[in-house]
Amino acid sequence: MSTANSTTESASPSKAFRVDSLAIGMVVMLAMTVLGRGIGFIRGMAFCRLMDDTDVGRWSMAFGFITLITPVMLLGIPGVLPRFTEHFRRRRSLTTFVRRIAIGTLACTSIFVMTMLTIPQWFGWIVFLQPQDNSLIYGVAGAVVGMILYNFVSDLNGSLRQVRMVSCMQFMQGVGFTLLSVAWLLSGGDFTGVVWMFAASCLLACIPGGWSLARSWSSAQDITDLEINSTEPETPQAFGVWDMIRRLAPYATALWLMNLIGNLFELSDRYMILHFIPATETVSAELAGQAAVGQYHSGRIIPMLLLSLGTMIGGVMLPYLSADWEAKRIRAVQDRLRDALLIVSIVFTAGSAVAILMGPWIFGVLLQGRYTDGLTLMPMALCFCTWAALVTVGQNYLWTVEKGKWVPVAMAAGLTSNLLLNAWLLPIYGLQGAVIATMCSHGVVMTGVWLAMIGCGYRADLTMLVLSLLPLTLLTSPAAAFCLAILIAAVAWYDETTRNRWLQNVPERLRERLSWT
Questions:
Q1: How close are the terminal C-alpha atoms of the chain, in Å?
Q2: Which regions span the lipid bilayer (predicted)?
C-alpha cells in the first residue's frame, strides 16, 4: 500500500498544512480507540449493574434511535465531507463547500428538533413503543443535537486527514460519557440524566476539534505544485449552488439511503424482539420485550466494540482512498483496501476467540450471572459484527469510485431477509432465533457488497474468500478460530509482496527491524 504524504509544504513553512500519514494516523487511532472502547466496555458493564435490564433495554433503544435518526434526517448532507473535501480543496473551493454543507446541516437539524419538541409523546411511542415523560424525549433531542455537532466537527477533521485529532475527540467523548453517566447513576440519578450526559460528552469532545480547525483552516486551503495535476485548475474554481448540488446529490442520496436502511437493519431485530416476545404471568409484553432487548444488548457489548473499531477504520481510510483516487493512483486504492480487509478479518477473529474464552468469567463475575442469554448468543454476535466491520471497510471502494448506490441495495436485501427470518425464527427459538436471523442477514449484506465491488472493477481473489469465511470458525471452536487466524496471518506475512506493502505503512525504524527476511 502506498502512503499519503505526511506533510504539505507551503510558502510559509511555519504555517504549512500538515496531514497525518495513514500509518501514523491509524496506529494512533487504533491505540486511542482500543483504550476508549475499553472504557466503553467498563461503561457497558456499569450500566448493566447500575440499571435493571428494562432500563438497559431502554438505553439500547434510545441510543439506537439517536444513531438512526441523525444521518437520516440530515439527508446525507454532512456525509459527503470525507469523500469530497479533498476534491474541492484541490479546486480551491474548500471554504465555499464546507460553508454550504454547514448551512444545510443546520437547516435540517432545526426542523427536526422543533418537530421533536412539538410532539414529544409521538416520539416516545416511536422510540420506546409506549409514551414517555416529556423530559426524556427532550433529552433525546439534546443528544441528537450533540451528536450532529460532534459528527460534523469529527468528519471535517477526518476529511482533512487530521486523524490524531479525530482520535482525541473520540477518546474524549467516550471517556467523558463514561465518567459523567456512571457518576450520575452512582449519585442516584435517573435514566433521563444518562441521555443528557451523552449530549454533554459530545459537546465537550467538539472543543479540541474546533480548535484544530481554527488553527489549520487557512493553511489547509494552500495547494502545492506537487498536488496539482494537469486536470486541476491553478486558480480558484467557482461552483454555483446548483452545480455543487448536482455534483453531490447522487452521492448524498445513496449515503442517505444506506444510513436509513442500515440503521433500520440495525434496529429491526430489537423491534422484532419487542413485538414477538410474549408476556408472562407476572410481566407485560412490553416489559418482557424490553428485558429481552437488555439481554440482547449484554451479548453485544463486546461484539459492538469490534464493529465500532471497524467503523473507525473505514472512516479513517475513506479520505486517504479519496486522495489516492483524485491523484489517479487507482492501484493504491485496491491495495490499501485488500490489506485492510485481511488484517481486520484476522485481528477481529482472533480477538473474538479470546472474548468467547473469557465469556463465562465476564458474564459470571462482572455481570453477576444476570445475563445468561447474552453469554449464549455472543459467538454468533461476534461473527456477524466482524462481517459488519468488513462491510464497513470494504464499501469504501464503492464510495470512492462513486458507485455507492449499490451499498443501500445490499443493505435492503439484508433488511428484508432480517425481517423475514426474525418473523419465522423468533416465535420458534426466541432470542436465539433473532440472533440467527441477524447473522444470516449480515451474510447477505456482505455478499451483496462484495459482488458490487467486483462489478465496479475490484479484483476478486482467494483473499476475499478467506477473509469472509474466517469469522464463521468462531461458531465451531474459539481455540481453532484463533489458531487459524494466526496461521493465515503468518502465510500473508511470508508472501513477499504483501509483506512489503505492509512494511511501507510503518515508521522507518520499525520497518528496518521487521525486514529481517
A1: 19
A2: 21-42, 62-81, 101-123, 135-153, 165-187, 193-214, 248-265, 301-321, 341-363, 375-394, 406-425, 431-453, 465-494
Checking phi first, is residue 235 left (phi over 0); if not, alpha (psi -120 to 50) or beta? beta
Q: Helix crossing, 134-159 with 94-118: angle to 10°?
A: 170
The grid cell for 393 is 471497510
Tell me 237's DSSP state. Answer: P
Residue 336, SS3 per DSSP:
helix
In the block, residue with C-alpha cell 466496555: 41
pLDDT digits (tens, 9 = 90+) for 46-63: 887 888 777 777 787 788
49 contacts 367 by C-beta, under 8 angstroms: yes
Contacts of 97 (CB under 8 A, 6+ apart): 84, 85, 88, 239, 244
Task: Work out whether the CA dihedral 428, 432, 435, 436 comes out positive or negative.
Answer: negative
Mean pLDDT computed over 293-306: 77
Number of residues that this document lists for the chain:
517
Q: Is a pLDDT exceeding 50 seen at residue 34?
A: yes
Record the pTM: 0.72
Distance, CA of 142 to CA of 195 (rounded, Å): 8
Q: Max Cα separation, the chain?
A: 76
Cβ partners under 8 Å of residue 362, min gap 6: 302, 355, 375
Identity at 501, one-letter amino acid code: R
CA gap 221, 200 in Å, rounded: 32
- Of 14, 3, 40, the residue nearest 305 (C-alpha): 40
Residue from 151, 145, 154, 147 nearest 209 by CA: 154
Beta-carbon neighbour count of residue 357 at 10 Å? 12
Cβ neighbours around 243 below 10 Å, total: 10
Confirm if 198 and 181 have CB atoms less than 8 A apart.
yes
Residue 95 grid cell: 471554504
Cα distances (angstroms) measured from residue 452 to each of 29, 61, 200, 328, 440: 29, 32, 40, 21, 19
Q: What is the DSSP letter of 302?
A: H
- SS3 label, residue 272: helix
Distance from C-alpha of 249 to C-alpha of 468, rounded to nearest angstrom: 32
Burial class from Cβ neighbours inside 10 Å (0-12, 13-18, 19+) for residue 301 reads buried
